[in-house]
């Protein structure tokens, strides 16, 4: 890691923002002779700063406002109930359960829950010295004032840092999209394991969908970007929309490449497609470098020109191949297998050219994005009452997690008090930080927390006796350590824990607490809480991820059904609603990503708790293929917005396939269902006959691009994709029906 890379991290920027927001009031009031006031204002800003994540300003302000109001209330409630043990412990347990219950529902709620837990810990640190109601109200007011100050500070910094934050996240999407293309290159290797490559592509798609959501979280609310195409952020919105379209085209192409791999017996074509795939990945990396000011637009444009020449060569080869078609069925099959890939490559070339035009600052041909449509694409992290209610059951992993946390945290708190150790709130907070819904995350954080705390105690102890700090120097050290903790929080939790330990110990030194005593109890309390957490992870209401896989599979099928249904309704209706299409596509891709992430969380759990991994691997394989075929039909809709699905038989085939989706979804939750063919009839023979007829017709018409030929090609394409979808759904039904992993679980608890 270079210094330049460190300074460009999102976490480094976040740490600097937090330290500035807390350090300004701290030092201002220190020099005014009111260090205690400055400290409490800094503490109040800390409660808000944890929510200061890159996001749209309205969303950020809503979350901050909630924390601004909740934090003083939590503090006063704990302070006033502290003299009454039964009431105090009940309230403390209630707060912990509530924050732990809400935390898994979204990343943003997790942030709010973390800050609530921090408020609980710091409240416990101060309440023992606050008995006078006036002191409690005064402290609560300072905490509120510190939070309010940070909200104003963060709003200002939002506009200053926003362009850098957007560029960083769009760069990440470019990097991940290039990585997807690079992985796809292995499909051209005859010795590669194609099934394994498809699973790798599914994993890449999941992380890429997450990266898309991070960009949406910043670009969808603050301004009317459709009127700001001459501004950098406005162009970034259009650039990002094109980047998502490019991935949609890549997803469809990946499926066609998989289909055509067995026909890749034409070395010339195989090499051409492989070269252009690698070149697209390289061009995307150059775009990333351009955004980071590491290359110029001239080099970027020249690379695109070379790529365009390769695309033209492929088109020429395909045209020549069409003119040389003979009466043999094999040559025709080769051509019609490769032709869609060449068309998708041409689509990707158009998209790449448009993206370069945006980067160049050319506004003339930028398509308008309607401001009123943007809110539809916001990151969805609002709590729904029905979702909250669905988890109020012992079958829910979130409910079990909340119970596990509150019982372990309160046990740690009581144990430390019984042993007569100081600061039992440290043990309580250690449990709150260590225990996470995921098994592997909890296990890893436990080890990292103990190691980081030991490292931090050693460093703090050494610094204290080396520097012999007074109040001012202590405040400098704990602010520097605070920055380090946030800068490494997601990169290296051991180092982050070490920095946070130095922060806590020097904060206590600022408050004139004994360093040796604080250091000893910081480590011992953390160690005891970690030991308790070891047993809690495995023994206290464990919830293994395999129990949620049924929901994620069902959710994916629902979303894919909606995606295909949206495409179908647009094919048979006048006009093309691009917004509705993109929304349905986004939901399907996110659902597939959630399904893949669930599978990988299962892989991180103990072997005897995973269930049948081979079975789940097949589900992922067929599900990702189903999504790719839906994208394939979606690309057709985008390319042919004027096409109308007028043929009655084709409409029946579409509805029949949509019914198959419904059948599989219902069969996941109902045993001993009638077979699909019993309920809806078996149209696959009709489809196969239609496919054979259309293939003969296009062979006869292949000599020229007449309207009849183009119309027949369109019909052939749709029939071919519907047959492919049917067989994928059939295989998915075969591998899920009767699976012991799906028995007894529910699809009615909505996980995130």
Task: Describe the structure concisely for a colleague.
This protein has 27 helices and no strands. It is mainly alpha-helical and 752 residues long.
Element-level helix/strand string:
HHHHHHHHHHHHHHHHHHHHHHHHHHH
Distance between the termini: 33 Å
Provide the β-strand percentage band: under 5%
Q: What is the number of independent domains? A: 4
**Helix-strand category:** mainly alpha
Describe the model:
There is one protein chain. With 752 residues, the chain is mostly helical. It folds into 4 domains: 1-162, no CATH class; 228-370, no CATH class; 384-541, no CATH class; 545-736, Up-down Bundle (Methane Monooxygenase Hydroxylase, Chain G, domain 1). 77% of the residues lie in helices and 0% in strands. It is built from 27 helices and no strands. The protein starts with a helix and ends in a 16-residue tail after the last helix. The model has no long low-confidence stretch (mean pLDDT 83).
Describe how the helices and strands are arranged.
Elements: H1 3-8, H2 10-31, H3 35-49, H4 57-81, H5 85-102, H6 107-127, H7 133-184, H8 194-219, H9 232-260, H10 267-291, H11 297-323, H12 329-360, H13 371-374, H14 385-390, H15 397-418, H16 424-434, H17 439-467, H18 471-487, H19 493-510, H20 515-539, H21 549-571, H22 578-603, H23 613-639, H24 648-669, H25 676-680, H26 684-701, H27 707-736
Helix pairs in contact: 2-3, 2-7, 2-18, 3-4, 3-7, 4-5, 4-6, 4-7, 5-6, 5-15, 6-16, 7-8, 7-9, 7-10, 8-9, 8-22, 8-23, 9-12, 9-23, 10-11, 10-12, 11-12, 15-16, 15-20, 16-20, 17-19, 17-20, 18-19, 19-20, 21-22, 21-23, 21-24, 22-23, 23-27, 24-27, 26-27
């Amino acid at each position: 890691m270079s210094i330049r890379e460190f300074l460009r991290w999102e976490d480094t920027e976040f740490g600097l923002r937090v330290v500035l927001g807390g350090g300004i009031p701290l030092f201002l009031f220190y020099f005014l002779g009111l260090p205690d006031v400055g400290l409490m204002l800094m503490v109040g800003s800390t409660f808000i700063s944890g929510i200061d994540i890159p996001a749209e300003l309205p969303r950020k302000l809503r979350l901050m406002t909630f924390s601004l109001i909740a934090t003083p209330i939590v503090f006063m409630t704990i302070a006033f109930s502290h003299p009454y043990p039964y009431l105090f412990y009940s309230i403390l347990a209630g707060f912990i359960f509530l924050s732990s219950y809400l935390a898994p529902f979204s990343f943003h709620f997790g942030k709010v829950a973390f800050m609530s837990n921090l408020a609980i810990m710091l409240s416990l640190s101060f309440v023992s010295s606050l008995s006078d109601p006036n002191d409690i109200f005064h402290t609560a007011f300072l905490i509120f004032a510190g939070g309010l100050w940070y909200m104003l500070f963060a709003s200002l910094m939002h506009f200053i840092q926003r362009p850098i934050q957007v560029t960083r996240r769009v760069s990440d999407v470019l990097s991940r999209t290039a990585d997807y293309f690079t992985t796809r290159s292995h499909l051209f290797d005859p010795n590669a394991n194609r099934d394994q490559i498809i699973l790798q592509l599914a994993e890449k798609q999941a992380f890429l969908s997450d990266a898309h959501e991070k960009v949406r979280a910043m670009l969808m609310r603050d301004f009317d970007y459709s009127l700001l195409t001459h501004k950098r952020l406005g162009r970034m919105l259009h650039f990002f929309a094109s980047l998502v379209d490019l991935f949609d085209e890549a997803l469809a192409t990946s499926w066609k490449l998989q289909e055509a791999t067995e026909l890749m017996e034409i070395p010339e074509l195989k090499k051409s497609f492989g070269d252009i795939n690698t070149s697209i990945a390289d061009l995307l990396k150059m775009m990333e470098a351009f955004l980071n000011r590491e290359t110029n637009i001239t080099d970027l444009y020249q690379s695109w020109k070379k790529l365009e020449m390769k695309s033209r060569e492929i088109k020429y080869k395909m045209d020549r191949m069409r003119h040389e078609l003979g009466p043999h069925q094999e040559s025709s099959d080769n051509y019609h297998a490769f032709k869609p890939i060449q068309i998708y490559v041409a689509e990707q070339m158009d998209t790449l050219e448009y993206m370069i035009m945006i980067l160049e600052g050319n506004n003339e041909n930028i398509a308008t994005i309607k401001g009123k449509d943007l809110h539809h694409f916001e990151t969805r992290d609002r709590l729904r009452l029905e979702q909250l209610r669905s988890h109020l059951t012992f079958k829910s992993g979130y409910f079990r997690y909340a119970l596990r946390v509150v019982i372990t945290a309160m046990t740690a708190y009581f144990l430390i008090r019984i042993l007569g150790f100081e600061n039992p709130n440290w043990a309580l907070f250690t449990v709150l930080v260590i225990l996470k819904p995921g098994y592997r995350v909890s296990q890893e954080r436990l080890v990292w927390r103990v190691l980081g705390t030991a490292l931090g105690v050693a460093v703090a102890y050494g610094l204290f006796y080396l520097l012999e700090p007074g109040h001012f120097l202590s405040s400098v050290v704990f602010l520097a350590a605070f920055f380090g903790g946030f800068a490494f929080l997601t990169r290296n939790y051991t180092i982050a824990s070490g920095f946070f330990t130095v922060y806590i110990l020097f904060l206590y030194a600022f408050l004139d607490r004994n360093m040796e005593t604080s250091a000893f109890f910081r480590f011992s309390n953390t160690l005891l809480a970690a030991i308790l957490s070891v047993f809690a992870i495995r023994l206290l209401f464990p919830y293994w991820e395999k129990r949620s896989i049924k929901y994620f599979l069902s959710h994916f099928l629902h979303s894919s059904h909606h995606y295909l249904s949206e495409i179908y309704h647009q094919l048979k209706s006048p006009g093309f609603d691009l917004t509705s299409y993109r929304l349905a596509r986004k939901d399907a891709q996110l659902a597939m990503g959630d399904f893949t992430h669930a599978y990988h969380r299962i892989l991180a759990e103990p072997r005897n708790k995973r269930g049948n991994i081979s079975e789940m691997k097949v589900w992922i394989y067929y599900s990702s293929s189903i999504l790719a075929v839906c994208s394939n039909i979606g690309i057709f809709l985008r390319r042919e917005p004027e096409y109308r699905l007028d043929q009655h038989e084709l409409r029946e085939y579409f509805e029949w396939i949509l019914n198959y989706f419904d059948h599989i979804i219902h069969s996941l939750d109902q045993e001993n269902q009638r077979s699909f063919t019993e309920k809806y009839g078996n149209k696959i023979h009709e489809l196969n006959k239609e496919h054979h007829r259309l293939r003969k017709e296009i062979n006869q018409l292949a000599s020229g691009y007449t309207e009849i030929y183009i119309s027949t090609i369109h019909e052939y394409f749709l029939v071919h994709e519907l047959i492919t979808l049917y067989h994928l759904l059939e295989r998915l039904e075969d591998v899920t029906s009767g699976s012991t992993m799906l028995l007894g679980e529910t699809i009615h608890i909505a996980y995130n």
